[in-house]
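Need a sequence for this fold. Nothing fancy.
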């Protein structure tokens, strides 16, 4: 695509904490295993979080691409909820309020949602400087922030889903549309086929 902006948003491969359904934010856990993927897109450069799970996924998905890490693209800092499951937290009154209204409820010793949102948007705007395609390997919460803001249908953060092994592609006609905060004009999802028997 010669004109406009295209963002390919990809969630990292699963970690042990993902399998155990724990909140994993800034804990620097590796992915469960290295895999080979049949990617429907090709790129020579990948942008993403500085955390290990994103860097390792980039190596699996795009082994010949250069990786440019950006700390602003990290997952939410879960503070006292970090590496805990719903079952461990469900009787915590602060957690109950946060689950119902994460936008307005600060996490104890963690990151406020609005800080997280601003950090992610800053990180993406640091990367997107010209009209071309960009591939980002990032975290579930980061993808949900971007889909809520730029997705083709209006939805809240809580309504958005970011699955593993899915490419979320958003396109704009011009960089001015993107910088101006417009929703994307084209949207698609593609599945990533993975060979786990390496």
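Here you go.
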């Amino acid at each position: 695509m010669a004109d406009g902006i295209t963002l390919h948003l990809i969630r990292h491969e699963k970690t042990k904490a993902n399998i155990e359904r724990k909140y994993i934010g800034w804990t620097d856990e590796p992915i469960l295993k290295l895999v080979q993927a049949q990617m429907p897109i090709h790129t020579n450069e990948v942008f993403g979080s500085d955390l290990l799970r994103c860097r390792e996924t980039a190596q699996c998905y795009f082994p010949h691409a250069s990786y440019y890490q950006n700390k602003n693209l990290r997952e939410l800092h879960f503070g006292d909820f970090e590496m805990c499951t719903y079952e461990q937290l469900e009787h915590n009154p602060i957690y109950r309020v946060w689950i119902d209204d994460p936008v307005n409820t600060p996490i104890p010793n963690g990151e406020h949602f609005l800080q997280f949102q601003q950090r992610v948007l800053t990180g993406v705007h640091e990367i997107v400087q010209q009209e071309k395609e960009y591939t980002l390997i990032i975290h579930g919460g980061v993808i949900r922030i971007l889909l809520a803001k730029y997705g083709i249908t209006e939805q809240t953060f809580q309504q958005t889903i970011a699955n593993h092994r899915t490419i979320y592609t958003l396109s704009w006609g011009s960089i001015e549309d993107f910088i101006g905060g417009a929703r994307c004009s084209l949207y698609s999802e593609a599945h990533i086929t993975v060979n786990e028997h390496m």
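For context: The chain is about 30% helix and 20% strand.
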